[in-house]
Amino acid sequence: MTTHRRDFLRYSAALSIAALLPQRVIAQPRFETNPFTLGVASGLPQPEQIVLWTRLAPDPLNGGGMPNAAVNVGWEIASDEQFRNIVDRGEVLATPQSAHAVHVTARRLLPFRWYWYRFMAGDAISTIGRTRTAPAANDMVSTLQLALASCQHYEHGYFSAYRDMLQHPIDCFIHVGDYIYESSWGRNGVRSHHSKEPYTLNDYRNRYAQYRLDPQLQAAHAACPWLVIWDDHEVDNDYANDRSQDLDPPAAFLRRRAAAYQAYYEHMPLAPQQYQGGPNLKIYGAHQFGQLAQIQLLDMRQYRDYHVCSRPGRGGGNQVDINDCPERLQPGRSLLGATQEQWLTQSLSQSSARWNVIAQTTLVAQSNRATTQGRAIYTDGWDGYPLAREKLLNTITQTQIRNPIVIGGDVHMAVASDLKIDFENPRSAVIASEFVTSSITAYGPSQRRTEALVANNPHIHFANGTQRGYTQFTITPKQWETRYRAVTNPRDPQSEAYELARYTVVDGRAGPQRG
Fold first, then answer.
1. How far, in Å, CA of 203 to CA of 101, rounded?
2. Within a domain: residue 457?
């Protein structure tokens, strides 16, 4: 065990002891204002159960505004919006140690059904959320509707993409990271964080609360279940494992990471058993939607090896010429870590799904950013870990899964590409299809840069970085359809949206086709 991890464990042990001390319980609280300001959410759908979430926060931007006591919270889930047929209900304690967040698992549900749920505390009742269970394990449903989003910078625009999402049938929503931004950058923002960069638990709680107060984001959470993974901005830009971009002392950064991970858990519809405290939170896992689709969620930050060829005195990614960074090719360098890699191989090997989805955070395809000086790549993504990418693609091939689809975000542009073992060889077989979503709001690259990306990488069919939006997927046994949705004006909270591009993948034939 490293010294900085040993120091952190001593620090976290003291916090754990404090959390176990007896606490006052308020069974019938009274609120002067609405305690359910942050809305409701659901996630991790299974055929017979689903996770429900809320948080009591009458003063959400100032630590929550709750007393230093546990509060009794009731919940119920019904098969109808009027709650005439209650299927499951219960009570749970919302504690100050967890910012009075609530994570409960509703059970005794039926497969692939819509349900409605709500929470109660004292005389206060939350808004009603709608959720849907997954199909039964052996069921081949005729259609599954998914949506994908990432990179929602609060200051860069309004979340009007979610407004458009609510106008379409979505069975489950997937968010692949940068749910919040810890930093401010860019010009001409439409709103402000109004606070410094977060470092402490209270800082991160307030940042999540600010994002969660957005009405369109709340409505999207309340409309259907979500599957979520993080990228870097939930903690610190371009962090890798226990190394920050600013090369903070590792023990100090682990304390920051622990605060960020706890706040993430407190504001996401995750299962209680996923978080055990400290700087560790297991977010990777497989999620089955009958025999039609299986989704593997990956963690690309917590376990990765450090970046190579960073700028002097800095951590994180860097744009480098491929010939000037041979360290990229060091054997064994990993983005996922050995344990997660082994799990992914086993999960894919056991899958019998028609469509096998790998949901990760960024662009997997090689993205040569040709310059007048040579061939440049950015080292924070898979291009900085080329042997790890080759290992991932070999795993897809060796497990012989049917219809592999890789989805991601991070790069602030919509991308459709072929995935192949050897990107340098035009004759190398296409082994999987890749779809990357644009950002919800975060500023993207210029059209000149994306046009150059397509021109220099023949395996990339489409790229657009000038439009903000999200992506819809319609899955049937015979076809996968991807529709890139773009908002007309991200500076307008009521902006309309339109279809930017459409691609399909036919069962048994890898590679996106336009149309």
1. 16
2. yes
Q: Are 88 and 145 in contact (CB under 8 A)?
A: no
As a whole number of angstroms, the distance between CA 275 and CA 281 comes to: 5
- Amino acid at position 174, single letter: I
Query: Nearest Cα to 71, choosing from 96, 56, 93?
Result: 93
Domain boundary among 131, 149, 172: 131
What gap in Å lies between CA 508 and CA 496, rounded to an integer?
36
Judge if 152 and 259 occupy the same domain.
yes
- pLDDT (0 to 100) of residue 3: 52
Flag whether 438 is in a domain.
Answer: yes
- Virtual CA dihedral for 338, 343, 346, 352, nearest 10 degrees? -140
**Owning domain of residue 114:** 20-131
Q: How far apart are CA 441 and CA 446, in angstroms?
A: 15
For residues 402 and 307, membership in a common domain is answered with yes
8 pLDDT higher than 60? no
Please check whether residue 370 is in contact with residue 321, taking contact to mean a CB–CB distance below 8 angstroms.
no
Q: Select from 93, 104, 103, 97 the least CA-distant residue to 29.
A: 93
- The rounded Cα 71 to chain-centroid distance in angstroms is 29
Instruction: List pLDDT tens digits, range 83-133.
Output: 999 999 999 999 999 999 999 999 999 999 999 999 999 999 999 999 999
For residue 190, the tally of other CB atoms under 10 A from its CB is 14
Residue 127: CATH number of its domain: 2.60.40.380
The CATH number given to whatever domain includes residue 369 is 3.60.21.70
What's the confidence (pLDDT) of residue 23?
Answer: 73
Same-domain check for residues 203 and 250? yes
Cβ pair 153, 439 in contact under 8 A: yes
Q: Side chain identity at 404, as an amino acid letter?
A: P
For residue range 165-215, what is the model confidence (pLDDT) as tens digits? Answer: 999 999 999 999 999 999 999 999 999 999 999 999 999 999 999 999 999
- 83 token code pair: 């709650």
Residues 14-29 as b or e (16 or more Cβ within 10 Å = b): eeeeeeeeeeeebeeb
Domain count of the fold of the chain: 2
Domain boundary among 87, 113, 131: 131
340 in a structural domain:
yes
Residue (of 109, 91, 40, 97) closest to 68 by Cα position: 97
